[in-house]
Write the structure tokens for this entry.
Amino acid sequence: MRVTLDWLGVATFRLTVGERVIFLDAYMDRVPGAPPVGLGAAEVARADYVLVGHSHFDHLWGAERIAARTGATVIGSHETVRLLHDADGIAEEQLVAVAGGEPLDLGGGVRVRVYPSLHSCIWAQMGATADEACLGDLGVAYQERASRVTRSFEMLHGGALGEDVAAHMKASDRHPRSEGGSLAYLIETPAGSILWKDTSGHWTGILRDLRPDVALLAAVGRGNVDGEPVQGTLADFVASEVELLRPRTVVLCHHDDWMPPLTRPTDVAPLRRALADRAPGARLVEMDYLAAYPILG
């Protein structure tokens, strides 16, 4: 069975398993200054399922249009389902709320296992490059973390980064309760398995027991390991995830220039070196948008 993967920017992918079309996140419509990915949510003509990693706008926005146009079933956290139903009017029959531990049959020989995950530490100091080490920010109470994140979103909405960003936030942000609980998905197909995480965080006890053939991993921000910010570089964080998972193939995501001037593309060279040093058995695939890459089979 042929399994192909299209990257659509940030952590959004279109996974095609035989005749089954599965979107991983749904954020394709970006600010005008971001490089276009070649497909908009309103242009998606076919989708059977949409899996949503967490409820922030740069992952969830677009799922409502895909669901409305194609009839796709959306699977995500209880917060994701609440927002799609209450704010966007998606019917209950098209929504499946999960929290981790659920086995799902998507048909066509595809099964999915949902796992609890963690969001990156967007409230902590981040390195300007993938090889800049960050230390500290340990033991910060939840209330202070939430306050820092709230201030960041107020900046985005308030126009500090320009009118285009503020207008985009007004259109896309459904104001979730935090990120709504981050999830990881292990997608099992007749040709092999794929683990997808849309943000840089994990529970070590969960990741170390998974053995996917392919790992789709976020490569941005300050990594979150068991609830605390990683002490080191982004490159080493990603390499440590690959060491735990031991996949044959690694695909990076969320490392593009998706919201200038806030973002800049991640230089992948330090990650490439870290993976070659610490996980030489893993093949790093660097793909362009809409590549239809034959990832399995």
Notes: The domain at 3-296 is CATH 3.60.15.10 (Metallo-beta-lactamase; Chain A). The longest helix spans residues 142-158. The helical segments are 57-60, 63-70, 78-86, 142-158, 163-172, 204-207, 234-245, 269-278.
